[in-house]
Amino acid sequence: MRKIVHREFVGGYRLRLCFDDGIRKVIDFSRLLKWPAFSTLQDIRRFRKAKVNGRWGCLEWPNGIDMHPDDLYDENGIVEKGEPMAKKKCRVVYRVKARSKRSRTWRWAFYGCSKRRMEEAARMLKEQFGGDAKVVAKRS
Length: 140
Fold this sequence. Notes:
CATH architecture of the largest domain: 2-Layer Sandwich
Strand content: 35-45%
Number of helices: 3
Radius of gyration: 17 Å
Order of helices and strands: EEEHEEEHEEEHE
Distance between the termini: 16 Å
CATH superfamily of the largest domain: NE0471-like N-terminal domain
Number of domains: 2
Strand order of the largest sheet: 1-2-3-7
């Protein structure tokens, strides 16, 4: 999983995002803002409040909108090469195991460094799909 390590405003609804593998991309978000989910960010002052979540490496706004780094990495944009950034290694990796009501086998659904985020993901899986989900910790 890639992480965003830095963001810089270029102008308008464009951001320069620096990823942990050294790739820098200038992405124009203006076409995404046409979608109803992103309509609150059409105000440039709100758009400029974007932050990089240090733990997850995702781009997020104070109103709860966030974008996964892999989606942004695959987004079309102007690509610039750079030096790879150091990756932060987690001491404990939390994994979410899930199974449906009919299935007896457990499957790994999510993993990450934040226990709180993984518990939220497990709750979401239970609510949306039924069945069971639990968080398992493993030292790395």
